[in-house]
């Protein structure tokens, strides 16, 4: 197969949650530029619509806002996406997430519920609701793809006191492996990307305060760029990534594995 086809996702259908900003937007933009038909979802309807309009000038992108911290909203979004793509979805990117930081003695119970409801339960509920659409799109040689966005803080002990966040991302990594085994029979692969530091709203304060230190500690000496994230997601979604499932791929300049 020519390399141009090997890494092509042209014409594939994709849903990117949390697709209006940060890592989700990096992936959504990369998908649209690569010729995929993309739905982005986020909690804020106005922001979601604005970003979809901007990406729509490049290719095909529509907005479907949802609060994925509840099972009912996951099912509603799944039904809307399935209807939009005539019951067939080629790629699901579970990126929507929340973070919380507080000292151990002050860490609130509500932070556990808020973070795990979205970061873990939301991934589970939305993926389960979309299995029929993913299975319809998948085949033995070109399976449908689920890409879960974890974190290097789920691979190592984080520098900051983000107890529920780092725990949730470790759970996402293992849920990825569990779902990969179960969904392989339906011609669906499930992999995770574990990002390191990238320019995003979630990371903005940390990078403002400690950006130079983070760069110095990174073996490759820099912060992640949009092409780093888009390229990994496109690889996993293309023919080149069709025989990979159950993997957790650190995209972090070597921080989690060699620093």
What does this structure look like?
The chain has 259 residues and is of the alpha/beta class. The chain has one domain: NAD(P)-binding Rossmann-like Domain (Rossmann fold, 3-Layer(aba) Sandwich). The chain has nine helices and seven strands. The protein has helices spanning 3-6, 22-33, 45-55, 71-84, 109-137, 163-183, 204-217, 226-237, 255-258; strands at 13-17, 37-41, 61-63, 91-94, 144-149, 188-195, 248-251. Strands 3-2-1-4-5-6-7 form a seven-stranded parallel sheet, with helices on both faces. β4 (91-94), α5 and β5 (144-149) form a beta-alpha-beta unit. The protein is globular.
Which percent band covers the strand fraction? 5-15%
Domains (count)? 1
Sequence of strands across the biggest β-sheet: 3-2-1-4-5-6-7
CATH level-four homologous superfamily name = NAD(P)-binding Rossmann-like Domain
Sheet with most strands: 7 strands, parallel
Give the C-alpha Rg.
17 Å
Structural class by sheet pairing and helices? alpha/beta
3D shape? globular
- The CATH class: Alpha Beta
